[in-house]
Each structure stands twice: as structure tokens, then as C-alpha cells.
Amino acid sequence: MFERFTAGARAAVVAHAPAEARRRGDRRVGTEHLLLGVLHEAEAAQALGVDVASARSALAVLDDAALAAIGVDARGVERATISAPSKRTPFTSGAKAALSRAVAVARRDTARRVTAVHLLAGLLDGDRTDPASDVLTELGVDRVTARARLAP
């Protein structure tokens, strides 16, 4: 599936995003991991105006808030990491949908290859209840403005 992806986009999806999921102790790659993976690519990070460290911090704030909402104080608790699995880390249905949207954006732009910017556009076009959307909101990213910056 990833043969139409540029080297940077492919790395974001098959290397960086699963690594971010393992780093957070998650067993599946979600849209939040795709966002972190895409932010490893300078072009996408610059277009969004956010770096991967800021996005990781925003995601940690959201995690802590979710735990606090159910009465768990996670401040100071070290998060578990998962060692590299022997097979590929599965993607959530939301992550698969974001990848499909990225391919559709590339087609609409008549691009021959899917880039990290197309991946970012696929994430920005996602549902507002999506974890990546929550991270973008926490970071104060205006999705409409960011999407306009990505337009060719």
C-alpha cells in the first residue's frame, strides 16, 4: 500500500508512528500516533507550526486530564513503553481512514506520490472527535488556517 508514498511519508507511517505508539505504551497505531509520526517530517511540522515535542506534551496533558476525570492522579507516574513487536503494529480504524483521506488528497492534488503534507491534510480533514483532533485543539492549531496553508 505504501509504494505510492514518498520516503518521508512512508517513514512517518511505518516507522515513526508505530515507534510513537510503542513509546506511549499503546498496542495500536491511532491518529494521534500518525500525527506524531508526520511531525517527524520537517515539511509537515513547518506547515503546521508545531514540533513533535510540543505535540507529545499536548498528548500527555490530554492523557492526564482523561485520567483525572475518572479520579486517577497520574502526575509523576512514568508511562510504560512496549518493546518492538515481532510483527507490524496494527492501525486503528481512525488511522486507516486518515490514510485513505491522505491518498484522496494526493489524488485531488494530482500528485503522483503521497507526501507527509498529504498525510497531515488527511489528519486535518478528520472527525472532530478524533484523538489527533484533540491534540491539535490542545496545541491551539486552527484547522482551517492550517489546511489553507497546505493547499497547493
TrEMBL record:
Pfam family, one: Clp_N
Protein's UniProt keywords contain Repeat: yes
Classification via InterPro entries: Clp_N_dom_sf, Clp_R_N
Alphabetized UniProt keyword annotations: Hydrolase, Protease, Repeat
Any one GO BP annotation for this protein: proteolysis
Start and end residues of each Clp R domain: 2-152
One GO MF term attached to the UniProt entry: peptidase activity
Protein name (Swiss-Prot/TrEMBL): Clp protease N-terminal domain-containing protein
